[in-house]
Specification:
The chain is mostly beta strands. It has one domain: Immunoglobulin-like (Sandwich). The chain is about 0% helix and about 55% strand. It is built from no helices and 9 strands. Strands 3, 6, 7, 8 and 9 form a 5-stranded antiparallel beta sheet that branches. It has a 4-stranded antiparallel beta sheet with strand order 1-2-5-4, with no helix packed on it. It comes from Sediminicola luteus.
Length: about 100
């Protein structure tokens, strides 16, 4: 899994690209506090090589908790900017700092 960030000079947003290798998966989404944990808002596209990828504009100067939802199961990004304990989920969530 990987995250790439591209900061825009003209707007206070960052283009964040999420890449998730999940060959056997049917559906992958990114859920987090930037989209109210709604799996319908940030669905990744499946590429021919079985990887899922998507780019989304997120406001800068924020820190977001997020996870991947792969066929209904949560997965953690090991290369996140950090981790934060989430009392509601009872686990650590990856952090995306922009």
């Amino acid at each position: 899994m990987a995250i790439a960030k591209q900061y825009l000079k003209t707007k206070p947003v960052c283009k964040v690209t999420f890449t998730v290798p999940a060959e056997g998966a049917k559906k992958v989404a990114v859920v987090g506090d930037f989209n109210d944990w709604d799996p319908k808002k940030n669905v990744l596209k499946k590429l021919k090589n079985g990887t899922f990828k998507g780019t989304f504009d997120l406001p800068v100067e924020n820190t977001y908790e997020f996870k991947y939802l792969i066929d209904g199961n949560y997965a953690t990004e090991a290369e996140a900017d950090g981790f934060k304990w989430n009392e509601f989920a009872g686990t650590e969530n990856p952090i995306l700092a922009l």
